[in-house]
Amino acid sequence: MRVSACAVCRTDLHVVDGELPNAKLPLVPGHEIVGRVAGVGERAERFKIGDRVGVPWLGRTCGECGYCRSGRENLCDRALFTGYTLDGGYADFAVADERFCFWLPDSYSDAESAPLLCAGLIGYRSLVRAGDARRLGIYGFGAAAHIVAQVARHQERKVFAFTRAGDVAAQEFAKSLGAVWAGDSNLSPPEELDAAIIFAPVGQLVPQALKAVAKGGIVVCGGIHMSDIPSFPYELLWQERTVCSVANLTRRDGEEFLGLAPRVPVRTQIETFPLAEANEALAHLRTGRLRGAAVLVTDSTPD
Prior knowledge:
six-stranded parallel sheet; Quinone Oxidoreductase, Chain A, domain 1; five-stranded mixed sheet; Rossmann fold; globular; 303 residues
């Protein structure tokens, strides 16, 4: 496929910083790819030349193991991942398995579509794991959070946003997307939460979130990597509170979310960078200088 846009994800930072083991090397990062089919294999049937497609993190699974056969392909031991164990989309061209690609809603431009493919999908999976929580806390208000907040408000949930200490801009951004409260991550919300989703890769936030959720509440860790979680007293977990993680995504997640996004409608807030400035985009993400998501665009991105 000829790549037109590829969003920049915090997972890309973990990969390039060597925080995730066994990456393919040398490697082309990037796993939120939008482009158009430029060539097809002999047995390819889903897409034709010129079709617009989206390529997500989950690049391939075995289709045979117990996880794959039970609707949990995201846990397949032999799975391959775009931009990690498969070359990704920080490039003019990319190769993908058509079985794991998605049609994209027509209402989004290429650059607007790109963040939906990971920030949107992993955010959606995290939100589903949070159950029917009416009072939802979101720790770390970046690309995934700004999408999840819109879906949560569409579902008539109350959103409480937690940011880096003193990040007033991110807090105002959260409020502009419907958060009823926004504050520093070391603060307690004005009311108990039914669930919390942690997108920031900071282990210290787990006991902090447990303090904030009510009895029976759930804390969902939505990232692929997190610093060590410090020890905490059992009383924070007692009263049937739960901590869980979210790993990867399934194709069903993608189909559900990409069908839902235009109905909300989700509006992705993006900052575009030329492909040649990929390192600059990563630097902006690392230092928290983004509002929403960074997206790399190539010369083939439509105006």
